[in-house]
Amino acid sequence: METEQPNVRKILLCTNPILRKKAQTVRRADKALRRLLEELVDTMEAAPGLGLAAPQVGEPLRCCVVATPDEGPARKLVNPRIVARQGRVIDPEGCLSLPTLQGLVPRSRKVTVKALDERMRPDTFEAEGVYARAVQHELDHLDGVLFIDRVIDGELAWLVPDDTEEDGVRLEPATVEEALEVFARLAKERGEEG
């Protein structure tokens, strides 16, 4: 029998109101913060995903984790902010709080981020490509913004399993309104707020 990992948290669906609120600044490092960051890493890896923000697991705090491009340990970010941006790219993006939904989202190609680590020590770094996209996506979560708020009109789709396709999925066009209705029904079925 498979048992659930104790450090894996439930990821909230996009209809939960906490995902639309600006997260609170973290004021101090303590055991609870370090535990939350570890749980975010474990949950992100189990999902699997490229990043996860505290509001996605019901914690309204300005912290998140992002998988690093070299596949080293995930970067833990406390009170992160983007201080510089370069370039612009439009690529597909998804979200663990909007499972099986994908859309084309414009983002900066490269960003410079200032944050604190889990012990409140300064951490400044640059991110580029997919890493930059993941960082921007997670920082949006800290401000109550979802990728569907930034998706290009007409470029949202469901990923539908399809064995006849080379990569095993086909894209089925969706609207933001339709997607939110689907997630509201799913939240109700799960007995979740939203």
Describe what this molecule looks like in 3D.
With 194 residues, this protein is of the alpha+beta class. The protein has one domain (17-188): Peptide Deformylase (Alpha-Beta Complex). 23% of the residues lie in helices and 30% in strands. The chain has helices at 31-46, 130-142, 176-190; strands at 51-53, 63-66, 75-86, 89-94, 101-107, 110-116, 122-128, 156-161, 169-174. The strands form two sheets. It has a five-stranded antiparallel sheet with strand order 1-2-3-6-7, with helices on both faces. Strands 4-5-8-9 form a four-stranded antiparallel sheet.
Summed up, what is this model?
The protein is of the alpha+beta class and 194 residues long. It is 23% helix and 30% strand. The chain has a single domain, classed as Peptide deformylase (Peptide Deformylase, Alpha-Beta Complex), CATH 3.90.45.
Topology record:
Layout: H1 31-46, E1 51-53, E2 63-66, E3 75-86, E4 89-94, E5 101-107, E6 110-116, E7 122-128, H2 130-142, E8 156-161, E9 169-174, H3 176-190
Antiparallel strand pairs: 1-2, 2-3, 3-6, 4-5, 5-8, 6-7, 8-9
Low-pLDDT residue spans: none
Beta-strand proportion? 25-35%
Strand order of the largest sheet: 1-2-3-6-7
Give me the strand/helix succession.
HEEEEEEEHEEH
Give me the CATH superfamily.
Peptide deformylase
Query: Helix/strand-derived class?
Result: alpha+beta
The total of helices stands at 3
The level-1 CATH class: Alpha Beta
* Helix fraction by DSSP (H/I, runs of at least 4): 10-25%
Number of domains: 1
- Radius of gyration over C-alpha positions, nearest whole angstrom: 17 Å
Summarize the main sheet.
Answer: 5 strands, antiparallel
CATH fold descriptor: Peptide Deformylase
Please state the average pLDDT score.
93
Number of strands: 9
Q: Roughly how many Å apart are the termini?
A: 32 Å
Shape summary: globular
Q: Tell me the CATH architecture.
A: Alpha-Beta Complex
